[in-house]
Amino acid sequence: MLLLLLLRLVMSRCLHDETQKSVSLLRPPFSQMPTDFRYSTFLPLPGSHDPQPLRIQIYYAGDPRSDEVWDPEGTGIREGSRALAAVRETTQRIQGILAVPPVQGPLLLSRDPAQYCHAVWGDPETPNYHRCSLLNTAYKGERCLGAKMPDAHLRGYALWPEHGLPQLIQPDGPGVQNADYVLYVRVAQTSKCHQEPSIIAYAASCQLDSEDRPLAGTIVYCVQHLTSPSLSHNDIVMATLHELLHALGFSGQLFKKWRDCPSGLWVRENCSRRKQVTRRDKRGQQLLITPAVRHSLAKHLGVLKVSLGVPLEEEGSLSSHWEARLLQGSIMTATFHGARRTRLDPITLAAFKDSGWYQVNDSAAEELLWGQGSGIEFGLLTTCKSDSSDFFCTGNGLGCHYLHLDKGICSSDPMLEGCRIYKPLANGSECWKEENGLPVGAENPHGEIYHSQSRCFLANLTSQLLSEDQTSYPSQIPHLREKELTGHCYLHQCTQKGAYKVQVQGSPWVPCLPGMAIQIPGYHGLLYCPQGRLCQSNEDTSTPPVSHSTQDLLVQLSLGLTGPPGLLLRKKQREELSEIVLQALVNRGGTNRCYFHSPSVTASLVFFVHMWKPPGCQGPSVAMLHRALTLTLQEKPLEVYHGKARFTTEYSKLLATSDHNPSVTHLLLPMGFCLLLLILMGALGTVAFQKRATLRVRPSTPHHHEGHGARV
Fold first, then answer.
1. Which segments of 493-605 does DSSP mark as H helices, in order?
2. CB of 510 within 8 A of CB of 521?
3. Per-residue pLDDT reduced to its tens digit, 480-500
4. Identified catalytic residue from 142, 211, 243, 366
5. Nearest Cα to Cα of residue 457 among 410, 498, 423, 408
6. 577 near 638, Cβ under 8 Å?
7. Nearest to 300 by CA among 329, 271, 279, 257
8. I need a surface site. Which of 63, 350, 431, 594 has the fewest CB within 10 A?
9. 448: annotated active-site residue
10. pLDDT tens, 594-641?
């Protein structure tokens, strides 16, 4: 169960395991009716074809039940629309991650004989032994975690005499077309939502196929969180992804059903139930020990020659989450700290590969920085308090969350079992939120800057005079890091992978050498440059290096959007929409996200994104990618949803720009525009002419750019 920390220093109980235990997992039964009495003889056996993207059909079952608290005069539609928008985006993402041999024909789900049948024939000598002899008159149909399943999705059932043919009560439904999985969606204020106010949503699997792959499940959204302004669309999407991964197989109830398919998914006869999926080590820690997850964890920790099991959170006899001490920030830990701090990590995808039910797209994994390369002892209770790793902290001081998006306080919680980490403060800790900054004209002795490109740095910078011993310049400061430095927000700009520069209020850009302490002109004190945390992926290079070759040309793509008439989006909503449009653009281009940087949507609904190919980004040139996108957008505009609003693209333009010092560009712009324009057009050549691009040079002003924060 994914949890929201309303106050980030407060922990909430996880519910997935108890939720899954409350559901009866049904498998396809042997036919309870002769073929003559059936409208369909279909059984949901795995398909015989090669794996294809997992097709998830969504069914909204928003009707409240009598045991729930529901406001009959509430808007309902708004909350349901927000939930469905998140589900649609999540299922589209899943299609790019998981593949299965497709179900052949319509998907038809099972009925539970224990529900519709009151008694069965008990004499083994009779021909209709163990078939239903008496119906349950109170039977009202099937539910999946409270969601009513339509009869159209279900097999039929019949009443059998002791001898002879049955009486057909309900024929088979037509089934669900083009589906490998059915997801039922509810928005309600259930008793679980009341008991655990921090719960965003919970989910469970309900039905399995003949080889135990989940075929259907339900996700329940607690309605109060769908009206909360504190949760962004991306937060709801990431919470949905967590729950859907539970319902697709990452669950303590389903680990024992995982299969070993040594010849691949398409050779089904070679699959068998895995002999052992979990075990306990000598410390009593429960581990997931299947091959792919062991290899993935060893690779993550930098100990490839060691075979490690992946620890699971201690949640009773079963556990459905990774151990928080070892995999903080993973999508499948038991607590949720917001979409910006959560990753769909390689170890989680390795678990789905080990399930034997799915083919997994490894390239969909997001880099997990927590504990990366930290060795075999990382995350143990015996080492986390020893100050041997800067991922953990000691004492109660102020510092930076390990992703450096937020200021944090060194604290623990029940999941960490005494280990301490820097957790985001309850209010105003986000360096990437401009609204957290000081009012204009307010005293700012530490020179802090809150901006989408700002990050948290350990520092003791001040514009006030200090004594001589406070302005020393040690080259490395592990002893100083926690004792004398605290978290402050400053602008950062990636120059290449693992390298960056910083800017303090009123200062020039200063190279920040990872692992070193630097001084900032105009300030006393030091700023510590974290190592291995910032600018670690190509996506982080949201602003280009100082110099470019012609092959690395930076271009700006703009897309006009049309939405509902009269719709006005606030800044936060525009940021959410920009991420949705960007993901659709990446999917349309069929390439990596590393080409696209600093997406934004203006108040007039124009989407802007920089296109630049940093080192290590695999694929065609920017010019080729832009041309391909232009052609496909002309043929078929993008169509995206934000909440209940639908947006489509109108046009695209190519704007070429380059990264200069803003002050120099400002001086050169009036007198050098024509010359620079000719140089750029010569570099672009006929490709730019064929695109009919509008070219212009403009200064790069990262401090005032209204863009979405880069992933770090």
1. 571-589
2. yes
3. 444 478 999 999 999 988 899
4. 243
5. 408
6. no
7. 329
8. 63
9. no
10. 788 778 888 888 888 878 776 556 778 887 888 888 888 888 889 999
